[in-house]
Amino acid sequence: MQILRNQKWAIFWAIFILILCNIRMPDTGSSGFFFKGFDKMTHLGFFFVLSVLLLYGKIKYQHSFAFRKLTIVKILIINIALGGGIELLQWKVFTYRSAEWWDFGSDMIGCLMAIFSYVLLHHLNPQTATLKNEEFLKE
Hints:
This protein is mostly helical. The protein has helices spanning 2-6, 8-22, 38-62, 69-92, 101-124, 134-137.
């Protein structure tokens, strides 16, 4: 139960993603704000933030910045399930939305960008794996 409490922001964000990716959207083709590829960039951003929130929740749960490969695998599985589930819902249930492999690919790129950032920052300063930064971990 403690792990779910630490993942509350990731859970809220996942629900937000589910809602936004499955609601009926107005036609944005004539708008000057949206551009070709905006949808893919949105998917990438959604899943980047989700992965960062999942990593943050895990750090708070274990009270350290320790790097664990199993955590990375779990985050990948969660993102694959959510991204794939959204595309399946758009394909079979919410047919007014279009299911696309490129959306799923953008989801995975966003996830991998967050994981890569975490791994890179961790390896730049390996001492953070053993440090306990109480100010960062407090709410």
